[in-house]
Each structure stands twice: as structure tokens, then as C-alpha cells.
Amino acid sequence: MSARLSLRAAGVDRDGVPVLRDVRADVEPGEWVAVIGPNGAGKSTLLKAVAGLLPHMGEITVAGRPVRGLSARESARTIAYTAQNPVVPDRMPVHEYVLLGRTPHLGYLARPGRRDRAIASEVIDRLDLGRFADRDVGRLSGGERQRVVLARALAQQAPVLLLDEPTTALDLGHQQQVLELVDTLRITDGLTVLTTLHDLGVAAQYADRLLMLVGGRAVSSGPPADVLTPDTIAEHYQASVTVDRGPDGRPRVHPIRPRHGNGRDGIE
Ligand SMILES: Nc1ncnc2c1ncn2[C@@H]1O[C@H](COP(=O)(O)OP(=O)(O)OP(=O)(O)O)[C@@H](O)[C@H]1O
Question: Which UniProt keywords are listed (predicted)?
């Protein structure tokens, strides 16, 4: 199953304050869109609204069906979501926790079967978690836990993957491993991938398109090379960068020190 994701005039209020407004976006099956933007821009809010965890205005549909009409079970079979700061049960072995990802596929009161265990084992292996399989989730490092949470989401085998900052706690090698795995699944299984990513370099390398939010509104969207310009980044992040192209033609963003011109630090 593949599923197109579509947002039309999507908006969210939190405590009566508008934090997302009038967002229009589409993510096609097999496409990876990264939501970028400064702190507090509404990136996590957007993902939570798509995951059905926050009430929204406008229309958000998955495979043509409004997400607000999906039951919890239907939603979990269609959308796998990982939070920026996931809450995990401390005293549960990794293999059991990952197996929870199979719950939406089980019949009423049914227990996971051989196939469910095989799927959970496979994602545990692919995320290099085999040696932690019997350890409690609460006794893992931050990066190990982040991979376990992703493993549970992948075990769900949902056609839509929503990942809120999936690599923040990961070392460089595991970052690449996770991002490459998601990219492979996007290509081989046609997953529809929507992530938030703070690291603009990573976003540029992996996403087909970027959606930049500022103050809850989409201010720019399109291929990474169109969105990631020094002027746009200076305007919306108040950051100084240069941008060039890598061998793959994708933009590479290099932070540079702003020019202070006050003479105190020797920089003109
Ligand atoms: N539970 C909440 N109640 C009220 N306001 C909230 C709540 N959670 C977030 N907000 C506000 O909503 C706005 C958007 O927050 P959100 O977490 O979506 O931003 P973000 O772009 O993901 O930020 P960051 O890059 O810092 O993770 C912010 O102004 C934030 O303060």
C-alpha cells in the first residue's frame, strides 16, 4: 500500500494561540519532504497534526482519507510517527518494545505471531540493535533509545513515516545508517516520508523537497537548492552561511561567523 499525504489550509491552535496557519503541502508516495525552520516555527506541531495527535483546522488527508476520521487502529496502520522527545517504558526489553509496532496488525486480543517477531527482529538488526535486544529500554543511551523508537515505528510497516528530528541524538555513523535506511525504504517500498530536520545539510542531502516554516506559516518550499539560499537562511534563521553544491548537485550549507565590525574580537 502506498499513500499520498495532503495538507490544505492546515492550521493548529495551542492554548488559543495560532501556531500553524494555512499550510498547503503534498507528499507523494516514495517522496521525502523535510520540514525545516527556526525553533518554535511549528514543525513538530505540523507532524503531530498529521499523526492525528492534535486537532487541526483545514484538511489533512492520507490516501485520500481525512486523518481526523481515522480510528486509532487505522491511523497506526497508515502512519508511523516518532516524537522529538519520545516517552518510553523504562522496564521493557527492546525486542518487546519493537514488537509493539505490530499491535495495529493484530486481531482483537491476538498475540504477535511468528511473522510479527520476524519483522521486529529484522528492523532490530537493520538498526544495529541486536546486542541490546534483551536489555530494558530505560537502560539505553540516548542514541540507542532513539534507534529503538525508530525500530518500533518501522515495525509498524505503515506507508507513511513521520519522523520528528530522528537523528539528533545519533553519532555521525548511526545518523547515516538511519537516514540511508529510511531512504532505502522510501525507494523500495514507496514510503511517504515527512521529517523535521534541524540540520539543513542533512535535509538538503536526503529530502526531495523542503518546506520551510516560520511563525507557523510556510515561507518557502521546493527542491533544496531553491529553498536553501544564503539570503533565505539569513532572513529566517538570522544565520550567516555560504552555500555551494556538492558532487551530487545538492546544496551544501556552511555556517560562517557573522561579521561583527565592533573591533572587540578582531573581526571586521
Ligand atoms: N503544549 C503546548 N502548549 C502551548 N504551546 C505550545 C505547546 N507546544 C508547543 N507550543 C508552541 O507552539 C509553537 C510551535 O512549537 P513546535 O514545537 O511545533 O515548534 P518547532 O518548530 O518544532 O520548534 P523546535 O525547532 O524548537 O523543536 C511554539 O511557539 C511553541 O512554544
Answer: ATP-binding, Nucleotide-binding, Translocase, Transport
Residue whose C-alpha cell is 565590525 = 261
Residues 2-21 have pLDDT tens digits of 899 999 999 999 999 999 99
| CA distance linking residue 211 with residue 22, whole number of Å | 13
Give me the interface pTM, i.e. the ipTM.
Answer: 0.98
pLDDT at 260: 61
**CATH 3.40.50.300 applies to domain 5-255:** yes
Of 39-48, 104-113, 191-200, 205-214, which gets the smallest average pLDDT?
104-113
Q: How far is the CA of 46 from the centre of ligand 1 (A)?
A: 10
Structure confidence at residue 265 as a pLDDT band (50, 70, 90): very low
Ligand 1 nearest-atom number relative to CA 37: 21
Domain ranges of the chain: 5-255
C-alpha 109 to ligand 1 mean position (Å): 37
**Measured from the CA of 165, which atom of ligand 1 is nearest?**
27
pLDDT at 1: 72
